[in-house]
Design goal:
The structure is a single chain. The protein has a single domain, classed as 3-Layer(aba) Sandwich (Rossmann fold). The chain is built from nine helices and seven strands. The chain has 266 residues and is an alpha/beta fold. Helix 6 links the parallel strand 5 and strand 6. Helix 2 packs across helix 9, helix 4 packs parallel to helix 5 and helix 5 runs parallel beside helix 6. Strands 3-2-1-4-5-6-7 form a seven-stranded parallel beta sheet, with helices on both faces. The N and C termini lie far apart (39 Å).
């Protein structure tokens, strides 16, 4: 019983409300589940209504959902603005969406960059502009961006993603300086190899290009990770849970790798 009490107090998000982007699968879904388990009310934001409805049925009455496509930043803005007009406010924002199409940087078209920036930087910025005014009034807020370890160490074969994630990291650091005086923290989580559809897709693509099997590519990847395993979405959710909690109230402007130690830089 004592350990349960400590657990609940340490990560207590009771009476907190979170908007979680990209919550129809993988990391976003895991974060939504963890937040609810620790007392928060969550609103899931993604484009697949069928998946969102099923997840909310699974998570219970503390979960709601909004449907919007991150390829359309103005559409995302409109959907969330309408939700806010119904006297809803959010204490926590999780910016998270799918990664750009892989490929060599030199082969990328300008439209590839435009699409990636729309989905990541533009949508995140518009959501912050919508949510921050009420956070300022409350003197409290958490903005957590799910980015990538590529902001520290570019990853081969995903040039547009490396570029876009770097822009997101710079945006977030600047924002943390501007919002700190209002009690609002802004932090990034940098996933390494996490068991998601995105990672599996990248590994499958690499297997085809190198004439290897998926299992061989996965084994090679694990060998580069000091903890010798692929991470789980729950590993990511635990990091988000801590940064959203009161225990992280003096942490802002940081980029936290959750990668099993794979990054070779300090």
């Amino acid at each position: 019983m004592a350990s349960t009490t400590i657990h609940n107090d340490f990560m207590n998000l009771k009476e907190e409300s979170a908007l979680i982007c990209g919550a129809s699968d993988g990391i976003g879904k895991a974060i939504a589940k963890a937040f609810i388990e620790h007392g928060a009310c969550v609103t899931l934001l993604a484009r697949n209504e069928e998946k969102l409805r099923a997840i909310c049925n699974e998570l219970g009455d503390k979960a709601k959902f909004l449907v919007a496509d991150f390829n359309d930043p103005q559409g995302v803005q409109s959907v969330v603005a309408q939700h806010l007009s119904d006297n809803q406010n959010f204490d926590i924002l999780i910016n998270n969406t799918g990664g750009p199409t892989p490929g060599m940087l030199l082969d990328a078209e300008i439209t590839d960059f435009e699409m990636a920036l729309r989905m990541h930087l533009h949508c995140s910025h518009l959501l912050v502009q919508l949510l921050v005014p009420k956070m300022k009034l409350k003197g409290h807020g958490r903005i957590i961006n799910i980015i990538s370890t590529s902001i520290r160490q570019p990853i081969e074969g995903i040039g547009v993603s490396n570029t876009t994630r770097g822009a997101m990291a710079s945006w977030a650091k600047t924002l943390s300086n501007e919002l700190g005086p209002y009690g609002i923290t802004v932090n990034n989580i940098l996933p390494g190899s996490i068991e998601t559809k995105r990672l599996n897709s990248l590994m499958e693509s690499k297997a085809i290009k190198t004439n290897k099997t998926f299992d061989q590519i996965q084994a090679e990847s694990i060998e580069t990770i000091p903890l010798r395993r692929i991470g789980s979405p729950e590993d990511m959710a635990n990091a988000a849970l801590f940064l959203a909690s009161e225990k992280a109230s003096y942490i802002t402007g940081v980029s936290l790798p959750v990668d099993g130690g794979r990054l070779q830089c300090i």
